[in-house]
Model the fold of this input.
Amino acid sequence: MQDLPFGLSGNWYRGNLHTHSTRSDGRTSPAEVCAHYRAHGYDFISLTDHFRERYQFPITDTTPYRTDDFTTILGAELHAPATSLGDEWHILAVGLPPDFAPTGADETGPQLAERAVAAGAYVAAAHPAWYDLTDQDILSVPSAQAIEIFNTACTVGNGKGDSTGYIDRLLSQERYYQIIATDDAHFNSVRPDSCRNWVMVRSSTPEPADLLAALHAGHFYSSQGPEFLEVTSKPGSDMLAVRTSPVRDIYLTGRGAASSSIVQDADFTSAELDLKAIKGPYARLTAIDHQGRRAWTNPFRV
Done:
């Protein structure tokens, strides 16, 4: 498992890894999607249209919309039969080549994910709570590096955007996954489904290849608003020091019920949490601000 990125050189870049356009079932054109996220302070997005035959298997070309202060990573949301409930797979693949071959007639979800990884993509299990994936479904896709912990479109569409339970159950089984928060924006909701969940990537440059390498390495955290500024543990110390933007709650959680937390009525920006309270090999941090917005680190080894 890679270390957390807070001591690394480079800069933080804000991005959305799951977005749709009129190339599939979104309401907004690729140019408008990119302009929207750029106008809202994003450094990059991956436009991940549905990779289905009825949309002609799009890897939407967003390269014309790159600017000096905004870039894109090619990607798609891949589909194949079938989950344990008989539903079509939804597999997020960020960093696909433009000539990624269409889904084969007999290709399964795990096989499709493996092919995407072989092509260089960063692969995640999309919105597992939305369509009730089982833990075994996720484990059957060994190529997946991450799980969407929060998905905006599923939150506003049917209230099933929070997949926190999957991450914690699988970590308790010593199955490591990175954590990404995404919009899955379609721009056709009664309530806004964009610019509400994102990743903050630590990268040496904002070039697409460097951002993709940082994702593969786990050099990022996810957020709805709060910022993690520093997470450190001195050698020989049992305390984890955390600095954040103003928040009301910070939770350090591991296996089972054990945790360490700081919860206050007023905002604070630094805390020390007890690593001895954590059971199991992995822990993760959650910060919550006074508006209820959350940020999550990737799991790290205790």
The radius of gyration is 19 Å. The chain has a mean pLDDT of 96. The CA atoms of residues 154 and 222 lie 17 Å apart.
